[in-house]
Amino acid sequence: MKEITIIIFLLAQAASLNAYACSCKKGTTTQKYQKASKVFIAHITSTKEIINNRSGEPYFKGNHIKAVYNVKEIFKGSPVNGGSITDRVYNGINCSLAIVAGQDYIIFQYDSNRISTCNGSTYYGNKHSDKIISTLKMLRQRHEKKHNK
User: Could you tell me if 47 and 67 are in contact, meaning their C-beta atoms sit under 8 angstroms apart?
Assistant: First the structure.
């Protein structure tokens, strides 16, 4: 009986973890590109943890990361070297990118400097993954199409 209780407890715990996982509005990369004001590959040069307890703005309640970047490639908009983006501190279940200095990311930036995986931003470290290759192909085609008009 004790073993069954433990198994039920463990299953309940596992189910509750899934309930708190990152959940975003679905959308294609093309739709996210269209919504974004800037899309680019950023090399993160520094990160800093910021404590911010703004009430009324749940995204920023608590700690977040401010990252300074250099632009490696632009697909849309006019990001500048030395610009910054802000993301939540990664906790394993939120939609953060887990930004790390010295790494590259594909950034989809909307009207503010806040980013997350929900808006299309992604880690660019695995440059040979099928997802990254297809995303970059689409972004480069859109950028060329826009500039060849």
Answer: yes
- CA–CA distance, 85 with 100 (Å, rounded to integer): 12
- Token pair in block for residue 133: 């290759």
Residue 44 in any domain: the answer is yes
Mean pLDDT calculated for residue range 35-41: 95
Give the tens place of pLDDT for each residue, 67-89.
999 999 999 999 999 999 999 88
Quote the pTM value: 0.76
Residue 70 near residue 88, CB atoms below 8 Å = no
- Name residues whose C-beta falls within 8 Å of residue 149's C-beta, 6 or more positions apart in sequence: none
CATH of the domain at 88: 2.40.50.120
| Structural domain range at position 94 | 25-147
Integer Cα distance of 113 and 130 in angstroms: 28
Measured in whole angstroms, how far is the alpha carbon of residue 115 from the centre of its chain?
A: 5
List C-alpha distances in Å: 105 to 8, 74, 87, 148: 41, 12, 12, 26
